[in-house]
Amino acid sequence: MRVAVLTDSTAYLPRALADEYGIHVVPLYVVLAGRSGREGEDISSEDVARALSSRGQRVSTSRPTPGDFLAAYRAELDAGADRLVSVHLSAELSGTWDAARVAASQVGEHIVSVVDSRSAAMGLGFAVVAAARAAADGADRDTVVRAAREAADGTRTLFVVETLEHLRRGGRIGSAAAVLGSALAVKPVLHVVDGKVVPLEKVRTSARALSRLVQHVVDHAGDREVSLAVHHLAAPERADRLVTELRERVPGLRELHVSELGAAIGAHVGPGSVGVVISTGAPTPAEPTDGPARDDPAAR
Questions:
Q1: Which of the two residues, 91 and 185, has the higher pLDDT score?
Q2: Per residue in 150-190, pLDDT tens?
Q3: CB of 46 within 8 A of CB of 55?
Q4: CA pair distance 40, 37, nearest whole angstrom
Q5: Fold (CATH) for 155-299
Q6: What is the distance of C-alpha 253 from the center of its chain?
Q7: CATH 3.30.1180.10-classified regions of the chain
Q8: Hey, how many other C-beta atoms are within 10 angstroms of the C-beta on 257?
Q9: What percent of the chain has pLDDT over 70?
Q10: pTM
Q11: Residue span of the signal peptide, if any (predicted)?
């Protein structure tokens, strides 16, 4: 039986990698300036960064509809797949997983397995790649699901934002924490724990926050072989600096991907945000995107 792997647009997979493994990507929706569009197709990272930098402009996101997923599932089945594994953004951060489950129930849960990665960005992306690699090797559906879950469990996502206000507006962090952080001019280091965004450490300057972000990555990696992904939104210089430091300080670094966050996640973290995803799983089977942070349009 052929197993097809699907995901949503918040995985921010390099386009060449998604194409190589035939990974079907279902886009989230982004709403700005009174119009709704598909992430990466109708509304870009630049659109969101520009809107968020303009006073008074609001940006919001919405999940794909069950109908979007149903169309994607039927397309894969019509193309010859026998079973489907659909791996998605944390259910704690979005209703995307729930919409996929609704669509799966209409196709048949003996056909479609929906996996909550309990992560985002390449925390999700590394899990999708692991699933796609297992499927390409001829694994059955249960093995593909297990590969996705194990890869997701082997990732850690850390990031720094310029302001907590965007996370507060989107309901991704508590209002009290956001207000206190803004009042004290705190630059927190955040991470994803059990699918939720949680403060890890509070510092007083952006430079200190970036330094602590790097140190947390170094400490978590230790002497193990790891894959890393550096994300940013409208902050290529900061991402470049992270790349340089991580290459110097992570001895077991086997690959490093760099990509700008897409519109859906970018709307919640805001311009100037940077993050690092650490994966202790197997390396991805494609060439890493490890050039300058500004030269990565295919990974958006």
A1: 91
A2: 999 999 999 998 877 666 665 545 544 444 445 446 778 88
A3: no
A4: 9
A5: Hypothetical Protein Tm841; Chain: A;domain 3 (3.30.1180)
A6: 20
A7: 155-299
A8: 26
A9: 86
A10: 0.88
A11: none
Phi, psi angles (nearest 5°) of residue 239: -65, -40
* Fold classified for 3-28+63-153: Rossmann fold (3.40.50)
Report whether pLDDT(34) > 90. Answer: no
CA angle 90, 95, 97 (to 5 degrees): 55
pLDDT of residue 198: 83
- Please report the DSSP string for 30-64 in residue order: EEETTEEEEBTTTB-HHHHHHHHHSTT--EEEEPP
Taking phi first (over 0 means left), then psi (-120 to 50 degrees means alpha), and beta for anything else, what does residue 64 get?
beta
The residue assigned the tokens 């479609």 is: 112
A 10 A CB-CB count for 213 gives 26
Q: CB count, 10 Å around CB of 224?
A: 12
Whole-angstrom distance, CA of residue 92 vs CA of residue 108: 24
DSSP class per residue in 246-270: HHHH-TTEEEEEEEE--HHHHHHH-
